[in-house]
Amino acid sequence: MAAAPAGGDGADLLFSLCLIAFVPSRSLPSKSIAELTTTVKKYGADVLEPDEHGRITVSQATHIISNTIDFEEYTEAMAMMVPVVTSHWITNSLSRNKQAQIRPFSPDPRMIFHNVNLTCADIPTVDKEVITGATLALGGMESKDLSRLTTHICALSIDHPKCQQAELKKLKCKIVLPHWFDDCFKLGKKIDEKPYLLPDPEILRGESKVDVAIPPSEHLEGATTALPDGPPSMLPGTRQRLTVFRKKKVLLSWDLSISSRFRDIVTELVKSGEGDIVRDVDECDMFICQYRDGEQYIRAAQQGKDVGNLAWLFYLITHDEWCSPLRRLLHYPVPRDGIPGFKDMKITLSNYGGEARIYLENLVTAAGATYTKTMKSDNTHLITARDNSEKCQAARDWNIHMVNHLWIEESYAKCEAQTLSNPKYSHFPPHTHLGEVIGQIFFDESRLRNLYYPGGDDTLGNKGKRKRKILEAAQENAYSTGPAAGMVVGRQEHQEVDVMRDDDAEYADKTMSIFGVPAPPRDKQNLVTPAKGRHVRNGKENDTPTVMSSGSRSAKDKALSKLHNLAPDIALYEKEKKRSTKDGHAPWGGKRAADQYEKAQAAAKSSSPALQGDEEEEEEEEEDVDAQRPSKKQKTGLPAVEMRVVLTGFQRWVGHSAKEEHERKKLRNMGIQIVQDNQPCDYLAAPFIVRTMKFLKVLARGPDVISSKFIEAALDSGKVPPIKKYLLKDEENEEKFDFDLQKSIARARANKGRLLWNVPIYCTAEIKNGYESYKAIAEANSAIFKLYRARSGTTIKPTTAEEDGGAPPEPVYLLSCPSPAERQLWPRFEQMARQGNMEPRVVAPDWLLDVAMRQEITFDEKYLCKNFWS
């Protein structure tokens, strides 16, 4: 446990029982994580390092800090009921001097009121209870008194003292009519407050026919169609090399209607991002297909692979960040024959425009209905964002069903036509354009499984069984109905600061039956984080009695039972990963017999003595060997590349170019390819730890680091030696540079090359070792790197704190040396930074080298140039 600061009050132990894991993302960059890590450690928390693959060890964490649910371990966190909260949970806990509730800080968008802090004014008691309960259930907070944290005041008039006080103090809170909450609850979505704002709410003016601007469709980016027209485009500023496919195996299905050139472009993008294209569904991590049928689709889905369509694949390429294909309806393969019940429907649209219209057109077609641009009497349905248009009037005259887009979205997500009698689908709030809440519906994985890939338990491997159990546990823990259906709220460790008080729970239960909002479990055992090793606490806090029927178990018991059942599967899976081939020469444990067969065949053709003796392994396992390498590689007579290695500090070839060329060919015949530092690689080989440009640049991609003696042993013996014996161990240099190599590799894999994302770093032109070297290291970690000459074109735009939203100054760095010429630049740089509301830090180059080496953003005043050489 991290040591608490000495001499403080109870706040020193605020996070003392917490083991916190951080998830890097564009919304939570590494620089923010570094600051938050320092803060939580100061208050007693431990920070969980990523595992060797750069993933979160969910079972060990008490809290996961993430500003998005788009990370691969989110489902596992839901299965284990580990709270996932935004970074604001930490700052709010510090401001309140106790751990904050977890529900209001969930990053899940299904918690529609997660940023609402409500206080009620002149509202009748019954209405207040209903509004407060439902707001709490959907992620909001409620306070009896007005404070600076209040975001919404629910009132009937502006005359109440709370409203007067808010205006007098100019608080940034919105005074809304209770009608706003009513409409939000009915739709299950948070709509814009503007028409409901006091003192002059638009909805009370009686102008229902007024035009409302079509809002932007922020949830539809890259998700308007299931079949893109062409290759994906990269976002401005996106790095050329992708990281989302690193160590991933992608299978492109036969049913994709794309040309060979199109397929080659996708293949090149995946491979350039250190991924691989495979042909066996059992090998893949991502399966890309067009339809929800076929043997490959069923097997991939049953095994828990990430199954998506081309639109999802292109979204990953464009944004270079992982997201679930179940998040957006048109990112998942479409049903070949549509959704049952839609075949005879003729549907048209009204009051939608831009991407929203394209999205709904494609959704109607994917559901199996016929979309018509114009409306005729034979139309069966009109989907509209408002009940005000010529088509709406015609629908009333011709008795055509008129619904909002929630009907088609929920029908598609639930794989069946939803009843039109649900008032949610025919609710049109006045002065509101429902296009603002389009694209927020998720798929329910359990419904997809029941309909399209049931069973399969007997054919699943250990990994597939584990994923299936995680999905089932997450589904059991999740809400089953209402706006938050499919979502899990993790258990709170401190019962006294949990999400809702007993009286709040009663309010919420009253509201559930009115608006269909899911009632949270009342079993208080579910609200207590189970003890994790050293976090055991004595006392009565965890002994709250549970009231259950004789035939049921609490959610906690079910979750724990699931985890116990997973244990043997996890053990078998880990054992299988470590299994080596019989001769002990495979570069990775557990190599498939098919790969060994290919190696033996290639060896026979090339008569290489280093690749003999695999016949026994062929007979040991009977697996599919039809997934051969492309014919272009077979023509060379060379075996498949098994290891891509970047060499640095290798002295064997210095001054011997002929020897280097010969031995490179020899290594290639063994399946080892020596590559440049800007190419995809599996390993970084060095004689010892060095702070060279090549070492630090490649380290940012998180490869295994091995000793260059591995290459020498392979060349001397003519065989590939066991890789584990040559993992680089250099305790002397680890102590010298004050870092742990294995931790740095794990962090690099978690950072995915984004350690310095959006961190501005300037460098002087005459710096020692050259500007280009530091540029390569910084850009390998996604920094914004610029040359500083104190001339036009290198200035930061002058701003004020108010223009920057009142945020504290962000640091900006200048790499410099203590020469007299460079010293003259320091005051100019500091002035430029302060005018741009940034904190200037003129540092020695060692700061960048240490940050890149540790793969963690740290700062100490010892790196400041004025201190470094003093």
UniProtKB/TrEMBL annotation:
- Which residue intervals define the domain BRCT in the entry? 10-107, 108-198, 342-414
Gene3D superfamilies from the entry?
A: BRCT domain
Give residue spans, biased composition: Polar residues.
Answer: 544-553
Tell me which CDD domains the record gives: BRCT_BRC1_like_rpt2, BRCT_BRC1_like_rpt3, BRCT_BRC1_like_rpt4, BRCT_BRC1_like_rpt5, BRCT_BRC1_like_rpt6
**One GO CC annotation:** Cul8-RING ubiquitin ligase complex
Compositional bias (Low complexity):
599-610
Entry protein name: BRCT domain-containing protein
- Bias class Basic and acidic residues marks the residues at 574-585
Acidic residues composition bias: residue spans: 613-625
Q: Which organism is it from?
A: Thyridium curvatum
Q: State the SMART domains in the record.
A: BRCT (SM00292)
Its organism's taxonomic lineage begins at: Eukaryota, Fungi, Dikarya, Ascomycota, Pezizomycotina
Disordered: annotated segments? 514-559, 574-638
